[in-house]
Amino acid sequence: MDYHCFDFRIENKIAHLSLNRPAAMNTMQPLFWRELTAILQTLQREAPARVLVISSTGKHFTAGMSLDVFGQGGISLNDSNASGRANILPALQDMHHAFNLIEQLRMPVIAAIQGGCIGGGVDMVSACDIRLASADAFFCIQEINIGMTADLGTLQRLPKLIPEGIVHEMAYTGRRLPAQRALAAGLVNEVFDSQQAMLEAALKMAAEIAEKPPVAIWGSKQAIHYARDHSTHDALQQMGWLQSGIWQTSNLVEAFQAKQQGRAPVYPDLEPVHSFADAAYTLK
Q: Is the pLDDT reported for residue 90 higher than 90?
């Protein structure tokens, strides 16, 4: 399927989603949200890949939200009365949904970031599991510079990734966080000299992840996210329940046998998720 805002392909169990409107600095306009949601829902439902890499094109990863979102054909926010302001919540939740899908995806998500990652871009990559950056990358909570509070996940996710003091600094000043400082703070895993080197590293990491058993990768992601938001005691209890559901002795046997035989292990993919909404049923 062809997309207007993205290039999307799947090869060797690796899904690669690339923002492809470099002339517009890959801004997030209305079609961006619809296409991103559709792609992520397909990945979640059908599990045709084992890992997702999100990259971009041009000088900047993304300049964030396009003003088109709030213009003609976009979202109309009426702040003149209480009933109009009440509609802001569902409008925001609609956009929250797209980035929540990244966080909830049944596979790891690696973001490869070059140039500016601004405004909504920070919201987006904060929802990813792993972030790699080129040396020219920088992160900016741009919303404060245009007179508003960031509202798509940055202020909720970023304090769990980097020291809170740095989040306060970024959120209050709108200053840029350059790649090397982002590395020191723990926002990115590694910084590369060029965009090409970064992308090659992201795809190499993705290939390594794709060789592992998908159900164990999914279990690891679930456990990490749960532990982030709960006490150690509760997270250990959840781990017991989780392991009870995903334990698969055959994967251990395959790993041992593959090592003994000097070959790559072969693990089953995650099965597609079947929804009641998709079920064929006729009332009688």
A: no
